[in-house]
Amino acid sequence: MLESVLKTIYVIWYRELIRFFREKSQWAGMIMQPTLYLTFVGTGIASAMTFRQAPGGTPVDYMTFIYPGIIGMSVLFTSMFSGISIIWDREFGFLKEILVAPVPRWAISVGKALGIGTIVSFQGTILLILSPFAGLSLTLWTALKVLPICALVGFAIGLLGISIAGRMESMQGFQLISNFLTMPMFFLSGAMFPLHSAPQWLQVLMVIDPLTYGVDALRNAIYAGIPEAQAILQHSIAYDLSIVGLFSIVTAATGVTAFNRQG
Amino acid sequence: MSIIIVDHLVKRYGDFEAVKGISFQVDKGEVFGFLGPNGAGKSTTIKILCTLLTMTSGKALLNGYDVNREPLKVRQSIGLVFQDYSLDDRLTAEENLYFHGMLYNVPRALLKERMEQVLAMVELTERRKDLVRNFSGGMKRRLEIARGLLHHPQVLFLDEPTIGLDPQTRSAIWEHVLRLRDELGITVFMTTHYMEEAEHCDRIAIIDHGEIVALDAPKALKEDIGGDMVTVTTTNNKQLAEEIRQRYGIPVVEDGTVLRMEVEDGASFVPRLAVDFAGMITSVSVHEPTLDDVFLKTTGRAIRDELLDEKERFRQRRLGRRRGR
C-alpha cells in the first residue's frame, strides 16, 4: 500500500513537470509576467514617488521593497492557476484514467501539489537571476532559502487551486473563483505596499491574508544582508513559515478530498 | 467459474430508476456483450462495476471482490477502455504506459518488459516515442487497449471501443480483442452498437429501460426468433402495416421507410402477400433473423437509429472540444 501511494505521488509529480517543461507558452508567461511587473510597475512607481514609508526612517529603494513581493505574486498566480490542469484533464478524459486507478485519491492531490511546488521553485530561480535589476546582489545561501519558501507557498496555494478545480465543472467558473481569491490575496499581502503605512481596517485584512506571511518569509530571506531593510520585516522567518505551514494543512484538508465525489 | 456476479443491482437517481434490479453472471474467459438503446442503463451498470459509481442496492462481485467494499482491489483487477479517449495527448505513448504502470504498481523490473509486450501486441512499437496528440483515432484506441492490459487485469471493460473508427481499424481491434481472450484467457466485457461486432461475443445481454430483456449466445438469440424476417417497402406504410396486421394476425414493425415482420415460412408468405396487396408493395426481401432483428424485437427500436445518434453525439463532442481548446 505504502509503495503504491509513493509511486502514485511520484508519477503524478513527474507528469506535472513533463507537461510543464513541454509547454513553451507556459514558460514564456511565467517569465514575462514577473519581469513586466518588476520593470514597469516597479520602476514606474519608484520614479513617481519617493518611497518614504519604510519605518525607522531608513530610505529603502522601492525596487528592493517590491522584489520579494513580485516573487510572492508569481508563486501565488502560478500555483493557483495550475489547478486548471484538472479541468483540462476532465475535459480531455485523462482524469478518468487517474480516478479508476487503484490508488487513494488524496495521493493524487498531494502529487499534483508537490509538482506545483517544484514548478514555482523553478520560477523562483528565474526571478533570482533577475535580482540585479532590482539592485540586489544575492548570495547562493539566500537563493537556497528562497526556493524552499517558494515551494512551500506553492504547495499550499496549489492545494487551494486543486480543491477549487476539483469541484468545478468549467474553466470559466474556475477562473472566476480563483481570480476572486488571488487578487485580494495579492493586494493585501504587502507585496506592493507595506503594512505599516496602511489604514487600520486594511491592516486587519492584511493580517489574515496567508500570503502576507509568505511574502514576509521571502523578505526575511532576501534582506538577510541588507541592514537598512530589516525594519520592513514583520515577523521572524520561523513565525512566517509556521503560519504558511498551518495554511497548507488547511488547504490540504480541502484539497485531498477534491476528487472524492467524482465519478 | 463466474468472474463477474451481479445480483439484483439497482441504481436510482432521485425518482428515476436507471437500473432496475438486474442479475447476471459473466464466465471467466468469455467475451460478453452488453447491448441496449441509449439511456437503457448500460453505462450506469459499467460504471458501477468499475467502482466509479455507487449502487443504490444489490450486490456485485468482480474477481471475487465486492464492488462496494473493496473498490481498490476491484480496480486492480480490471482494465478499462472508455468510450471517450482518456490518454494524455501531451505525453508520448511510452509515457502514458509508464504512468499507468506506476499507478497500478507494476513492479519496476517487470514494467519495461510489459510495456514492450503490449506495444508490440497493438503494433505501436515504432511509434512509442511519439506524442499521442499526433496519433490517429485507431492508434489511440489501440494504445488504450494496450494500456488497459499493462497490469494484467482479469477483466477488460471496453465501452464502445470501436465507435468513430473506420471499418479496417474496427476489425483490427477485434482481432486484438479475440486474441487476448485466446492467448491470455482474459474476460472481455464490452458494449457496442455494431451488430456485426456483437456477433463476435460469446454471449450477449440486451438491456432496455434498466432491465435485461435477453441474455444468451448470439446464435441462440437468433434462433429464438424462429422464423424468417420479411422486409417490405410499400406505397403507404401506415395503412399497410395495419392491414397486414389484421389480415395475418402478426406483429408488424414500422422501421424507417420499411415494414418488418416475422413469419414462420418466408418463402410461402411472400407470394401470398404479393397477391393480397398487389400494386401497393414495391419491394420484398426475406432473410434469416440477425441480431438487428433480435434487438428490434426485444427493445422495439432499431439499433441503427441508436448508432446514428451515437455517431452524431461523438462528432458533436469532438467539435465542441476543438472549439474549447
From TrEMBL, chain A:
<feature type="transmembrane region" description="Helical">
    <location>
        <begin position="65"/>
        <end position="88"/>
    </location>
</feature>
<protein>
    <recommendedName>
        <fullName>Transport permease protein</fullName>
    </recommendedName>
</protein>
<feature type="transmembrane region" description="Helical">
    <location>
        <begin position="113"/>
        <end position="134"/>
    </location>
</feature>
<comment type="similarity">
    <text>Belongs to the ABC-2 integral membrane protein family.</text>
</comment>
<dbReference type="GO" id="GO:0140359">
    <property type="term" value="F:ABC-type transporter activity"/>
</dbReference>
<feature type="transmembrane region" description="Helical">
    <location>
        <begin position="176"/>
        <end position="196"/>
    </location>
</feature>
<feature type="domain" description="ABC transmembrane type-2">
    <location>
        <begin position="25"/>
        <end position="262"/>
    </location>
</feature>
<dbReference type="InterPro" id="IPR047817">
    <property type="entry name" value="ABC2_TM_bact-type"/>
</dbReference>
<dbReference type="GO" id="GO:0043190">
    <property type="term" value="C:ATP-binding cassette (ABC) transporter complex"/>
</dbReference>
<keyword id="KW-0812">Transmembrane</keyword>
<keyword id="KW-1003">Cell membrane</keyword>
<keyword id="KW-0813">Transport</keyword>
<keyword id="KW-0472">Membrane</keyword>
<feature type="transmembrane region" description="Helical">
    <location>
        <begin position="27"/>
        <end position="45"/>
    </location>
</feature>
<dbReference type="InterPro" id="IPR051784">
    <property type="entry name" value="Nod_factor_ABC_transporter"/>
</dbReference>
<dbReference type="InterPro" id="IPR005942">
    <property type="entry name" value="Daunbcin-R_ABC-transpt"/>
</dbReference>
<keyword id="KW-1133">Transmembrane helix</keyword>
<feature type="transmembrane region" description="Helical">
    <location>
        <begin position="146"/>
        <end position="164"/>
    </location>
</feature>
<dbReference type="InterPro" id="IPR013525">
    <property type="entry name" value="ABC2_TM"/>
</dbReference>
<feature type="transmembrane region" description="Helical">
    <location>
        <begin position="237"/>
        <end position="259"/>
    </location>
</feature>
<dbReference type="Pfam" id="PF01061">
    <property type="entry name" value="ABC2_membrane"/>
</dbReference>
<dbReference type="InterPro" id="IPR000412">
    <property type="entry name" value="ABC_2_transport"/>
</dbReference>
TrEMBL record, chain B:
<dbReference type="Pfam" id="PF00005">
    <property type="entry name" value="ABC_tran"/>
</dbReference>
<keyword id="KW-1278">Translocase</keyword>
<dbReference type="InterPro" id="IPR027417">
    <property type="entry name" value="P-loop_NTPase"/>
</dbReference>
<keyword id="KW-0067">ATP-binding</keyword>
<comment type="similarity">
    <text>Belongs to the ABC transporter superfamily. Drug exporter-1 (DrugE1) (TC 3.A.1.105) family.</text>
</comment>
<dbReference type="InterPro" id="IPR005894">
    <property type="entry name" value="DrrA"/>
</dbReference>
<keyword id="KW-0547">Nucleotide-binding</keyword>
<dbReference type="InterPro" id="IPR017871">
    <property type="entry name" value="ABC_transporter-like_CS"/>
</dbReference>
<dbReference type="GO" id="GO:0016887">
    <property type="term" value="F:ATP hydrolysis activity"/>
</dbReference>
<dbReference type="GO" id="GO:0005886">
    <property type="term" value="C:plasma membrane"/>
</dbReference>
<keyword id="KW-1003">Cell membrane</keyword>
<feature type="domain" description="ABC transporter">
    <location>
        <begin position="4"/>
        <end position="234"/>
    </location>
</feature>
<dbReference type="GO" id="GO:0005524">
    <property type="term" value="F:ATP binding"/>
</dbReference>
<dbReference type="InterPro" id="IPR003593">
    <property type="entry name" value="AAA+_ATPase"/>
</dbReference>
<dbReference type="GO" id="GO:0043215">
    <property type="term" value="P:daunorubicin transport"/>
</dbReference>
<keyword id="KW-0813">Transport</keyword>
<dbReference type="InterPro" id="IPR003439">
    <property type="entry name" value="ABC_transporter-like_ATP-bd"/>
</dbReference>
<protein>
    <submittedName>
        <fullName>ATP-binding cassette domain-containing protein</fullName>
    </submittedName>
</protein>
<keyword id="KW-0472">Membrane</keyword>
<dbReference type="GO" id="GO:1900753">
    <property type="term" value="P:doxorubicin transport"/>
</dbReference>
